[in-house]
Write a structure and sequence with these properties.
2 helices, three-stranded mixed beta sheet, 108 residues, single chain, 3 strands
Length: 108
């Protein structure tokens, strides 16, 4: 028998498909896999179409849910930290400004 394509299916549909095709599912990132319903499969091993014996185990992984930092928001661009106004930025004004007054080496 061949491994079914499970990527893209919700957990409940993946379980139903695997059961109908005679394979068992394992989900190392979901200890409560038997209760997982709407999370989507994002990876599987062995891949779809591979010949396996009936009763073989197919390992599936899921996307991160909203509570886990996922939720499909996509890639975000990096944000560089900004230095707060004043402080060091104010002390390091460009030469020639009022902050830099150069005097000769005269006596004190």
């Amino acid at each position: 028998m061949r491994v079914p394509r499970l990527v893209g299916l919700m957990a409940m549909d993946a379980r139903r498909t695997a059961d109908a095709r005679g394979v068992f599912l394992a989900a190392p990132d979901r200890p409560d896999f038997h209760r997982t319903v709407v999370d989507h499969v994002v990876r599987q091993y062995p891949p779809p179409g591979v010949e396996v014996p009936r009763g073989a185990i197919v390992t599936v992984w899921f996307d991160l849910g909203e509570a886990e930092g996922g939720g499909g928001a996509g890639v975000r661009e990096p944000r560089l930290p900004r230095t707060p106004g004043g402080g060091m930025r104010r002390e390091l004004d460009e030469p020639g400004g009022d902050a830099y007054v150069v005097t000769g080496f005269g006596s004190c």
